[in-house]
Write a structure and sequence with these properties.
Blueprint: E1 2-4, E2 16-17, E3 22-23, H1 29-44, E4 54-58, E5 70-74, H2 80-93, E6 95-100, H3 104-113, E7 118-124, E8 138-142, E9 158-161, H4 166-187, E10 194-197, H5 201-213, H6 218-221, E11 224-225, H7 238-255
Parallel strand pairs: 6-7, 6-9, 7-8, 9-10, 10-11
Antiparallel strand pairs: 1-5, 2-3, 4-5
């Protein structure tokens, strides 16, 4: 897809259309409805591999949309191998997230982030805690002790810590800080750009005291965000926390670190 002016999605967005369903979206509205209809007409009339017609959609009165931009859509017949390649490229473009904790809040966050541009490694010391069916973007990992999973996390992972035990949480935080200390010594860049810890100010004050006793500096402790979630969203229900965390991640993705919830 190529674009000019104000349009629902960015250039390069793709959507797969079959006779009975779709994968992905061009942004919705009448333009997507018309694009789906055009694609299905091509399928019915015998589109072949290598045929790539292009159709221009002006988002004006004729489509009942007032964005004012232009979308040039290319249509291509693909096979299962090409679809797998598209999905793999999409997965690579997703930011890695490591979530420690399979409880109610962890599940709620996984459910929200799974629909966003993140690929998730979900870690817990209790192997039986994970649901049987999870989306393909989620890898469930049993690790006992749980903090032993930290060294193998993908570089650039955002880390969320919310295990069933404050003792486990503390050990995970420590291992994340140690990994960042080692990576910064080699390249001046930390491996784990976001370390988020669920909990209150009191919990974090206690953790800071214990981590200082273990030799961590104030600059290192400043790498930890606690509480997690974007400022301005209140409520302690798992689903509320999940939305607040997802909003925080999206702000980080677009603009850098926003303030956490207070």
């Amino acid at each position: 897809m190529q674009t000019q002016g104000s349009v629902p999605r960015e250039a390069g967005t793709w959507m797969v259309v079959t006779g009975g369903g779709i994968i992905g979206t061009l942004g919705g509205g009448n333009v997507e409805f018309q694009a789906i209809a055009f694609a299905r007409d091509l399928l019915r009339t015998g589109m072949v591999l290598g045929m790539e017609p292009t159709k221009r959609f002006a988002l004006g009165p004729s489509l009942g949309q007032c964005c004012g931009g232009i979308m040039d859509l290319s249509f291509e017949l693909i096979d299962s191998a090409k679809l797998a390649l598209l999905e793999a490229r999409q997965n690579v473009a997703c930011q890695p997230v490591a979530l420690f904790g399979g409880g109610h809040v962890g599940r709620a966050i996984v459910n929200v982030l799974a629909s966003l541009p993140y690929r998730i490694t979900w870690i817990d010391s209790r192997d039986e805690i994970f649901p049987e069916d999870v989306p393909s973007k989620i890898v469930c990992e049993h690790s006992d002790p749980v903090q032993s999973a930290v060294p193998s996390l993908a570089t650039g992972s955002a880390v969320l810590i919310m295990s069933f035990s404050h003792a486990e949480d503390l050990e995970i935080v420590q291992q994340c800080l140690l990994r960042n200390r080692a990576s910064k010594a080699q390249s001046a860049i930390t491996d784990l750009p976001f370390i988020g810890l669920i909990g209150s100010k009191t919990k974090w004050a206690t953790f800071q005291h214990r981590l200082r006793e273990r030799g961590f500096t104030d600059a290192e402790l400043a790498q930890v965000t606690c509480p997690i979630g974007v400022a301005g969203i209140t409520g302690k229900e798992p689903e509320v926390i999940a939305v607040a965390v997802a909003a925080q991640f999206l702000l980080i993705r677009s603009h850098g670190l926003p303030p956490s919830r207070e």
